[in-house]
Amino acid sequence: MNQHPLLDHHRYIDKMFPTPLVGVSLSPSDPSILCKLEFFNPARSIKDRIARYILEKAWRTRKIKVGSTVIEASSGSTSIALALVCAQMGLKFIAIMPEGVSQERELIIRSFGAEVIYCPHCDGMQGCLDFAEQEARKRNAFYPRQFENPDNAETHHLWTGQEIISQLPEGVIDAVVSGVGTGGTIIGLTRAFKEAGCKSIPYIAIPTTSHAVGDVECSSFSKRIPGVVECMSKLYDKKKLPEAIEISIPDTLAIETTRRLIALGFPVGPSSGLNYAASLLVAKQLGKNAQIVTVFPDGMEKYFSTELFDPFRTSPAL
Ligand code: PMP
């Protein structure tokens, strides 16, 4: 066994606890949706799982060792997760980011000891991915490639999905609902639930916008829900998940639902509001007694400087 030398020192990452799966309803008359609270992970998102799974596998197969460099192109949760796991495993991490991401993200990544390189001349996220690939080759670095690495979906198939099944004593799941960034979550969970004998239908939550979208790479997709950009993925396409049903959610509803969840004490980001709003629509279609599973992918902290918190910036007059 390729034992990690930091294992007995300060390394806790391989002892990650299961995150809670809880029934959430916005009001007593609303249906209860089973929500996986991924903001309980160490770096506050579901991406902690893929970071740990992919780097552990790379470690076991001797693709990386203490001191190796890891490079990824991501503007959000994946870079933060990789920065934390690299800090735990004694690896150097470089995050390649498009310009204009919120300052919170850069601060979190740098505080975990990682480097941030902005890609000023990159043509959106695709430009960043191309640049990351070049840099990884030049520096002989490990490149996790979340948008195409099958280990991303395998993480949710073998880990997140199994964890959810173990938390559902009766093992019945009628639907699983998620937005698609890389597609790793919905592909992995669908596989896990199918294997466990559930007849669950996958629903893809698509954030739509009525705003001008000239600078958005997928023109019908809203930029207001960070992390949910289906068109970047090489893992997900409709042919791979033919049974999936798409469900459109206006971005305004997703943001409003996120604020309502926060007000109820769920410190979540916009994609959780998107997933929850879509789950309510699915509950309407399938009936109140349907068991619907969704994920709250990340916490609210990286969004403090965004419009999500605008209503809370001024305190109301007493
Ligand atoms: N929500 C957030 C905040 C994300 O960062 C992502 C992934 N980029 C998703 C949802 C979508 O998850 P997946 O990549 O597994 O499709």
Model description:
- The protein is α/β, with parallel strands linked by helices and 318 residues long.
- 35% of the residues lie in helices and 15% in strands.
- It is built from 8 helices and 9 strands.
- The chain has helices at 47-60, 77-89, 103-111, 124-138, 150-167, 184-195, 251-263, 270-286; strands at residues 21-24, 33-37, 69-73, 92-97, 115-118, 175-179, 201-208, 245-250, 292-296.
- It has a 6-stranded mixed sheet with strand order 1-2-9-6-7-8, sandwiched between helices. It has a 3-stranded parallel sheet with strand order 3-4-5, sandwiched between helices.
- Strand 3 (69-73), helix 2 (77-89) and strand 4 form a beta-alpha-beta unit.
- Helix 7 (251-263) crosses helix 8 (270-286).
- The protein starts with 20 loop residues before the first strand and ends in a 22-residue tail after the last strand.
- The model is unreliable at 212-219 (pLDDT under 50).
- Residues 76-77, 179-185, 226-228, 269, 271, 297-298 line the site of 4'-deoxy-4'-aminopyridoxal-5'-phosphate.
